[in-house]
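User: I'm preparing a small set of examples for a lab meeting where we compare how different chains pack in three dimensions. I only have the primary sequence for this one, and I'd like the structure in token form so I can line it up with the others. Please keep the answer compact; I'll paste it straight into my notes.
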Amino acid sequence: MPELDPIIHAEARLRAITTLNELGERDRIAFTKLRKILDMTAGNLSTHLRKLEDAGYVEVTKTIEGRTPATYVAITVKGKAAFADYRKALLELLAGLS
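Assistant: Understood. Below is the structure token output for the 98-residue chain.
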């Protein structure tokens, strides 16, 4: 039976990495926009992004634009590979249940 990556498998992290995976190569999204898309609180999203970041699946960049802090999030090459492996394992698992 295929193993599902426990870092990705949590619902909030799966939603986040799926959204980030849809971005173009080397693209990033503003934290505030991602939060609105996922309809999550800032604290909840931060917690889940930290887990993904600790695994090397996403990169979080904090910067200053004018005088305002801004945070951007992007999926890494490792994150894209992990998501592809997760998706493959999930499809294999579902195919075995039919």
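A couple of notes for your slides: Residues 59 and 86 are 19 Å apart (CA to CA). The first strand starts at residue 29 and ends at 30.

User: Perfect, thanks.
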